[in-house]
Structure prediction request, 148 residues.
Amino acid sequence: MIVKKTYYPKADDISRNWVLVDAKGQNLGRLASKIALVMLGKHKPDFTPGVDMGDSVIVINAEKIEVTGKKLDQKMYYRVTGYPGGLKEINLRDLLATHPDRVIKHAVKGMLPHNRFGRQLRNKLRVYAGPEHPHQGQAPRPIEEVLP
Prediction:
Protein backbone atom coordinates (compact mmCIF):
# COMPACT_ATOMS: atom_id res chain seq x y z
CA MET A 1 0.00 0.00 0.00
CA ILE A 2 1.38 3.42 -1.00
CA VAL A 3 0.80 6.33 1.34
CA LYS A 4 1.03 9.79 -0.20
CA LYS A 5 1.89 12.54 2.20
CA THR A 6 0.57 16.08 1.99
CA TYR A 7 3.20 18.76 1.55
CA TYR A 8 3.11 21.40 4.27
CA PRO A 9 5.79 24.11 4.06
CA LYS A 10 8.10 24.67 6.99
CA ALA A 11 9.30 28.10 8.07
CA ASP A 12 12.71 27.47 6.44
CA ASP A 13 11.13 26.52 3.10
CA ILE A 14 9.30 29.85 2.67
CA SER A 15 11.11 32.56 0.71
CA ARG A 16 9.91 36.07 1.42
CA ASN A 17 10.72 38.96 -0.89
CA TRP A 18 9.89 42.64 -1.17
CA VAL A 19 7.76 43.93 -4.03
CA LEU A 20 7.57 47.55 -5.22
CA VAL A 21 4.31 48.85 -6.69
CA ASP A 22 3.95 52.21 -8.42
CA ALA A 23 0.33 53.36 -8.02
CA LYS A 24 0.63 56.24 -10.50
CA GLY A 25 -2.24 56.00 -12.99
CA GLN A 26 -3.46 52.64 -11.63
CA ASN A 27 -7.10 51.80 -10.93
CA LEU A 28 -7.69 51.52 -7.16
CA GLY A 29 -9.60 48.21 -7.06
CA ARG A 30 -7.49 46.39 -9.62
CA LEU A 31 -4.29 47.49 -7.92
CA ALA A 32 -5.60 46.44 -4.49
CA SER A 33 -6.47 42.95 -5.76
CA LYS A 34 -2.94 42.50 -7.16
CA ILE A 35 -1.41 43.66 -3.89
CA ALA A 36 -3.61 41.28 -1.86
CA LEU A 37 -2.66 38.39 -4.16
CA VAL A 38 1.06 39.04 -3.59
CA MET A 39 0.61 39.50 0.18
CA LEU A 40 -1.25 36.19 0.44
CA GLY A 41 1.40 34.39 -1.62
CA LYS A 42 -1.02 33.09 -4.25
CA HIS A 43 1.48 33.90 -6.99
CA LYS A 44 3.89 31.25 -5.70
CA PRO A 45 3.70 27.67 -6.96
CA ASP A 46 3.87 26.21 -3.45
CA PHE A 47 0.97 28.31 -2.08
CA THR A 48 -0.73 26.76 0.93
CA PRO A 49 -3.94 28.30 2.33
CA GLY A 50 -3.64 29.55 5.88
CA VAL A 51 0.16 29.72 5.78
CA ASP A 52 1.93 33.07 5.59
CA MET A 53 3.83 32.64 2.32
CA GLY A 54 3.36 36.14 0.94
CA ASP A 55 5.77 38.94 0.22
CA SER A 56 6.02 42.41 1.74
CA VAL A 57 4.66 45.15 -0.50
CA ILE A 58 5.79 48.77 -0.85
CA VAL A 59 3.38 51.12 -2.63
CA ILE A 60 4.62 54.50 -3.87
CA ASN A 61 2.77 57.43 -5.49
CA ALA A 62 -0.46 56.65 -3.61
CA GLU A 63 -1.66 60.21 -4.18
CA LYS A 64 -1.78 59.59 -7.96
CA ILE A 65 -4.21 56.66 -7.83
CA GLU A 66 -7.17 56.78 -10.23
CA VAL A 67 -10.81 55.77 -9.81
CA THR A 68 -13.58 55.48 -12.37
CA GLY A 69 -17.02 57.07 -12.46
CA LYS A 70 -18.21 59.39 -9.71
CA LYS A 71 -16.44 57.55 -6.90
CA LEU A 72 -14.35 60.58 -5.91
CA ASP A 73 -17.47 62.32 -4.62
CA GLN A 74 -19.83 59.41 -3.91
CA LYS A 75 -17.57 56.85 -2.17
CA MET A 76 -17.66 57.44 1.57
CA TYR A 77 -15.41 56.16 4.34
CA TYR A 78 -16.93 55.84 7.82
CA ARG A 79 -15.49 55.58 11.30
CA VAL A 80 -17.04 55.72 14.78
CA THR A 81 -15.54 57.62 17.69
CA GLY A 82 -17.35 55.50 20.29
CA TYR A 83 -19.44 58.38 21.60
CA PRO A 84 -23.15 58.93 20.89
CA GLY A 85 -23.52 60.67 17.53
CA GLY A 86 -19.87 59.99 16.81
CA LEU A 87 -20.22 58.64 13.25
CA LYS A 88 -17.69 60.44 11.06
CA GLU A 89 -17.68 60.26 7.29
CA ILE A 90 -15.31 61.50 4.60
CA ASN A 91 -15.48 61.08 0.84
CA LEU A 92 -12.72 59.68 -1.34
CA ARG A 93 -11.66 63.07 -2.76
CA ASP A 94 -11.05 64.55 0.71
CA LEU A 95 -9.31 61.42 1.99
CA LEU A 96 -6.96 61.42 -1.01
CA ALA A 97 -6.14 65.06 -0.31
CA THR A 98 -5.35 64.50 3.37
CA HIS A 99 -4.22 60.85 3.76
CA PRO A 100 -3.73 59.09 0.39
CA ASP A 101 -2.07 56.08 2.03
CA ARG A 102 -5.25 55.19 3.93
CA VAL A 103 -7.20 54.76 0.69
CA ILE A 104 -4.97 51.93 -0.54
CA LYS A 105 -4.67 50.36 2.92
CA HIS A 106 -8.46 50.28 3.25
CA ALA A 107 -8.94 48.77 -0.22
CA VAL A 108 -6.35 46.03 0.41
CA LYS A 109 -7.80 45.34 3.87
CA GLY A 110 -11.14 44.51 2.26
CA MET A 111 -9.48 41.91 0.02
CA LEU A 112 -7.63 40.06 2.78
CA PRO A 113 -9.16 37.51 5.17
CA HIS A 114 -11.11 39.09 8.03
CA ASN A 115 -9.46 37.17 10.87
CA ARG A 116 -6.13 36.95 12.75
CA PHE A 117 -4.35 35.84 9.61
CA GLY A 118 -5.54 38.90 7.70
CA ARG A 119 -4.47 41.23 10.51
CA GLN A 120 -1.04 39.60 10.47
CA LEU A 121 -0.77 40.09 6.71
CA ARG A 122 -1.66 43.80 6.92
CA ASN A 123 1.67 44.44 8.65
CA LYS A 124 3.41 43.57 5.36
CA LEU A 125 1.97 46.59 3.52
CA ARG A 126 3.76 49.93 3.43
CA VAL A 127 2.16 52.80 1.52
CA TYR A 128 3.79 56.15 0.73
CA ALA A 129 2.13 59.18 -0.85
CA GLY A 130 5.12 60.25 -2.91
CA PRO A 131 7.80 58.49 -4.97
CA GLU A 132 10.28 58.16 -2.06
CA HIS A 133 10.49 55.18 0.31
CA PRO A 134 13.05 54.17 2.97
CA HIS A 135 13.25 50.48 2.00
CA GLN A 136 16.10 50.52 -0.53
CA GLY A 137 18.09 48.06 1.60
CA GLN A 138 15.52 45.30 1.02
CA ALA A 139 16.08 45.47 -2.77
CA PRO A 140 12.40 45.42 -3.76
CA ARG A 141 11.49 43.95 -7.15
CA PRO A 142 8.82 45.60 -9.36
CA ILE A 143 5.46 43.87 -9.33
CA GLU A 144 5.73 43.27 -13.08
CA GLU A 145 8.55 40.78 -12.41
CA VAL A 146 6.55 38.94 -9.73
CA LEU A 147 3.16 38.66 -11.43
CA PRO A 148 2.92 37.41 -15.02
